[in-house]
Protein 1
Amino acid sequence: MTGRQIEARSGRRLAVTLGLWTLPALIVGMTSTLWFSATTINELADSAYDRSLAGAIRAIDANISTESGGVGVEQPYQLFKFFELTAQGAVYFNVTTDDGFVQIGDVLLPPPPELSSGEINFSDDTYLGRTIRVGSLKRPLSPATPEGTQIIIQVAETKGSRTAFQNELISRAILRDIMVILALVLLLAAGAYAAVKPLNRLREAIDTRDPDDLTPVEVASLPLEVRPLVEAVNRLMQRNVEQADQQRRFLDDASHQLRTPMAIMRTQLDVALHQQNLDDVRKTLLSSRSVLDRSVRTTNQLLALARARTSQGYDAYPQELISLEETIADTVRMLWSRIRSQRMDCVFEPAEVRVVVRANEGLLQEALVNILDNAVAYAPPSSLISIRLRVEGDWAFTEIIDEGPGMNDEEIAHAGSRFRRGSSKRSVDGSGLGLAIALTVARAFGGTMTVCNRPDRSGLVVTISLPVISALPG
Amino acid sequence: MNKRIQATIASVAMFTFPAIGKAEPSKPECIAPAQPGGGFDITCKLAQASLQNSGALKAPLRVSYMPGGIGAVAYNAIVGQRRAEAGTIIAFSAGSLLNIAQGKFGAYTEKDVRWVANIGTDYGAVVVQQDSVHKSLTELMAAIKADPTSVIIGAGGTIGSQDWMKAAMTARAAGIDYKTMRFVAFEGGGDCATALQGGHVHVCMNDVGDSQAAIDGGAPLKLLAIFSEQRLPGKLAEVPTAAEQGFDIKWPIARGFYVGPDVSDADYKWWADAFAMTMKSPDYAQLLQERNLFTLPMTAEETTAFVHSQVAAYKTLAADFGLTTK
């Protein structure tokens, strides 16, 4: 657990979040749909209305006679009468030849755009102050001479009824879209309410729990999306339960570890008080002192363990870049007299490169001291302790190898647990905290600790692995 | 035109009047360069009747129609392709000359044809429906001044044509910007009169001749004003002149004929002499009066000189109204 606080951000109602995400999409979607509808409606209406314009043009065209050699245009007013009835507006026409000889009809109509022969072009324009739609057709006066004189026929109508028709359709489209938006908003609101309802039930269920009820929350009835969250909370509670368990056990063990030597000392003190012979008293007190030493050491180890645990979360023991081989060498030097007191020997085999790790030197030394202490305590006198430092990839492995009895499988499985002392029958004054401290320290620096028996002969291999920051050729 | 009847008449004529005057062109034809029913039609019909009546022309004169641009299409056809048709005379009017003055007859000028004769004169007239709300030219102009788009002015010919010119001159005299007039162009006075009866235009800037012919034929129209010096005689005496109503504008319309540029001098002279003889005949005045036309006898050189001077005068007038002239 990092314990780092999650960046505080003010909470928002789900419905608001939902609205903020969906409303712009809805607005953009509806606007583009509307724009598209309007364009389509305009195009459709134009093409429908333009058809009747085109019909009028074709009718005038059919009534242009050139048999006499001149250009005769039959008046289209009868035709327009019906056309005006359907178009509900004014209709204008203009027939011209491109040589300018013939100009018949509303000669002041705006001139047509560039036309290609035979094609009817439609455009919007203004005539007599009103908006008009003009259809224009250009064709050769005589089919026999397509490059000769061209005749241009224009028919225009006022756009009033067309625009009204288009506006009617567009306003209907707008109304429809608004209704769709309203329906969507209602459905979304109902959906959001239904989706949030199980969460409210969950909150009520948790609120009504007993304070010490840490059993997992039922997830089966929850929405799939919420389950991982509740499961994470369940796991957090589970860890709390386990940690509370561990702490209770630790307290039990620690108090037991401290009470036993105190009881022994109390007994010894009683014995000493009853002894007449000063030498006997002295002997008893000496034995009491060793018991007291053990208690002091246990207490120190408990403190070290507490410090190592603490360092995982806080900066009280700052980590810095340190040279791993120097730290190991210093530790061996520190323990040298104790190793020699057992007439044991210690060999340190550094890596070929200079290994730098990020750690707190004091705590790392504490871990190494505990492992070496164990080796000194469990291995037979005059045996050899080897320390090997090697680098593989991004990891530095520090192996402490002794020639002791090693551990059985069960002990290996529980190595690192507090107060699990090696079951070796030899009387050793260990508290079982050494490997627990080493493991805790290694984890605090992003590494770990493993324990195994030597493959070649009797003996234990304790390996501390730490991530390498840099490994430079020494 | 019913061609079979024409053919029958022609064959009967051939038998009845064997060709005496050897200079008389064969298959005589008068082209009215417009739709039937307008001033050109009347001009040709007058020639048809009077030449036959006077005996100047033995063969019947066929009247054909070649509409387009107040004579522009026909003028181009004659100067372009039918240059030497001795038997073909083409009607013209002052309106043709005005358009020639503006270059609206294409690349050709008044010097490109041979002008045969003037056979009479007509006058511009303002025509409305019989029950029109506009009771006088003054009222009509007031209505246009109040709202230029409320009155649709019909005319034979487009912007710059003589009908437009009459309207523009009157509008200017009434203090109206003639460019704001609502204007619809027709092929000729006949078409405009038809549209006027249908109510598609409110007023036609026509001629006395074709308008009165339509009224005589029963069309429910009436003349609001005539662009003449004085009131015209006979039944037209009731119609006031434009000047009487406060618009001092005169618009006489000379009517006559031309032939193609490559028509021989002999044939040209034959036509000129035929018209001169016809116009001197005693029945001619009667024929003119029937068609509400007035005498203006000219032929050959006199007509040519008249045409040239008129074109020059029209050029000045067109420039005055901002129309392009070439």
Protein 2
Amino acid sequence: MRTLYYIVTSALVRGLIGQGITAFVVYQGMVSLRNALGYDTTQGVYDEPSGVMAALISVIGFLLAAGVFTDWLKWIGGEDPPLKHGAQGRPEWTRYINVDVNHKVIGIQYGIASMVILLLGGLLAIIFRLELAMPGLQFLDGDAYNTLFSAHGIIMIVSIFSGIAAMINYLGPVMIGASDMSFPRLNAFSYWVSIPAATVLLSALVVGGWDTGWVAYPTHSTTTTMLGVQMFLLGFYINGFSSIASGLNMVVTTVYMRAKGMSYFRMPIFVWAAVSASILQATITQTVGLALTMVVAQRALGLEFFTPVTDPALIELGFPGGDPTLYQHLFWFYSHPAVYVWILPGLGVISELLPVFTRKPLFGYKWIALSSVGIALVGSIVWAHHMFTSGMPVTWKIPFMISTLFVAIPTGVKFFSWVATIWEGKMRFDTPMLFVLGAISVFLLGGLSGPILGTIATDMHLHDSYFVVGHFHATIFGGFVFPFFAAIYYWWPKATGKMYSEALGKLHFWIMVPGFWVMSLTQMRTGVLGMRRRIADYGPDLGIADEQALITVATLAIGWSILIMLYNLIVSLRSQEEAVPNPWGSRSPEFMSPSPLPEFNFDGPIQVIGEPYDYGLDDSTYVVPASAAGD
Amino acid sequence: MGSRTRHFAIITVLIAVSTVVVYFLINLYLFERPFGASAEASQIETMFQAHFILMGFLFAIIVVPLGYAIVVFRQKEGDDTDAPHIHGNTTLEIVWTIIPVLIVVGFAIWGSFFYWDLVSANEGEVEIRVQGYKWDWTFYYPEHSVPGEPPRQDQTLVVETGQPVVLTMQANDVIHAFWVPQFRVKQDVVPYNIAIRSDNGDRQVIDLSFANPNYEEAAEAFNYSPQEVRIIPDQPGVYRLRCAEICGTQHWAMLANVIVLDTDDYQAWVNGELTLPADPNFANGTPDTEGYYLDELKAFCDEQEFSGVNCESEY
């Protein structure tokens, strides 16, 4: 009974109710207003302009009802409310469904959100993979298929953003020896704004679906009659606030909150990757916001940004005609670097875990640290390689081909440094290390299938084919999914104080890694043979039916292995056995504190007196309590 | 021989062997290319080969040391000590930065000239206009049209072996993409411009559609340049054009037959003496596998006696 009370009165439930009521009221109000003004509001599943307004305002409804703005509103009223810490007299678990400012609570909230959304996105993928297992349409039609793959794409992206935010939030502050983020309330806002963004996004599935893919190119996205497209665009847009705010927060935290002695080149390597990703997301998200807003505005307000109409009178005045490919530039200017936002933290996890499990210093710390920055920089000037077939002039394509190939340099530095770290290392094969090795192997698949897409001549064949699907999944699984799972296993005892079953963890690994290799390589193979992306059926004439069936089987294997992981983790929570504070023999600051970490991470300030990865060097220490440092 | 030298000697040999094995695996099985039916396909094949060799080498240079270290250096039972304290080597880092830079620069320069050459105009090319729309394709043949009359059109793309073709393309609703895997070329088909002329205050809508009998005039007046792609088809056969850009409900079914004929057959088609196989068109009703009209294709192949490879392996 009390449990039910805590749930019903939680910020999550209050927010959802607030969002629902706001959306309903605003929608009805807008429809009445538009009726009164003489507009036809009966077209489509819902009245589009009213729906857009309702969705936007509903986010504010959620945030107000959940209490995310409470402290800020009090500031406006002249009060100075203190930061609230702890469960406010409720059980500890209620912190995860209420607005909490502690970075570890927010990190875990993100982690749970990420896994829930991941399962949903995976379920959608399995549904349409079953459809594709055989040629011919079995149980989906074109619109249903299009909705499923579009939703799979964006839902997985939201899951990835939550996943990297989980790692950055939980680990960032504690790794640099801080007690929390610089802006704890903004941090809570970043998380809580992503929840109404997700509900708006998911509502797209129930208001008609959409068939544009996650890229939503005009003029298809501006003319499609599947009205879910608006909710998709708005959900994507609102999620951007979360990215920008959390990116800024992490950068400021790293600059100002480092412990004494924690110079930039003595930070755990994950922080370098996290900061590179944070700088990117704080600075590039705006352009996709612009692109999405323009599509929303073209649909709802009739502003013809992308309709190719040329009016010489307007051209004389300096207004070019609408241009469908303009969107693609704005979109990819964000969406290409966004991929680096997703993979940089994962690559950071790989670099972070390798020294621990090889008992050897990280080879070329500075080179790895700066290669993250290099990837972020080079990755920002390659976007038009997504447009090699869009009809750009050759003189534009070639510079983008060259910049794209240069991404290989910093990525290569990472790979070589990892191999050098492993070389002569006394490797231990605990579950997190297995996933790190899996990540390296899968990211290698993604990396090696990249240059062939980067040279325009070969890209003409492979562009928009299943080869790209295989390449993309390999980069994201290798750069995010596997490292994320490694991170979950590795920091699970630290975050929960419980240890999972190694046997089940290894089972998960031995199903998922071969499953993924088969899936990804077979996708690439079918793409070279002529399979297009985003198609509901491929026809028997391509001769790829066996391969398609194999991809589906591999997908199912991956799905089952992830369920094994969740089972393993959830069961471990009920175990009576307490995990030791430092099960892996790590030197990192978070392992100097008890598990789970105390509210403010450390008993007192800490101080850095040595290098982070000096494994194999006697008498070397990385961090000590500041009181013990003697000055 | 010191143990370090021995390890390096072993992995050097293994890397060399793996490079060759992986290259053959990729080339002959994993990334098998479809039948090549254009001069571009053979040209691009060179670049595929270069990439495959690079893939084999890079795969080997990472995976061999990784696997070797896992097997040889792993923690032995009862050994709890740390590994040797090696924290980096600047020379090595510079080497594995500079060598990839050289490879990348090489690929960039070669790739630029390669592509420039690939898309440059061919001598004596004829224009065929391709129009994509939800969810079908129409082809216009200005070469076989009478000026001032509606252009000759067909639902099938018919080209002649050895005759260079420039395909100009437009869409009239949303973006589509032209892809014939056997030609190895792809080009997005972007919605065409409807131009609005406002001389003397009169606003006049000019139709830039390929279907417009006065298309050339209108295009010239508005400096309209549609997307284009060049091919020199060189293998007779029946292939399929597939839309490669998501365009809505029946995107997957946006197909057209592409038929490459030798000169005699091509002339017969121009004179209207050749019956083409049925156009795969799903516009009516729910498509099933029958909608691909594979039997018709097969019959046409047999009738034309197209040399085995393309017809049999594909259909």
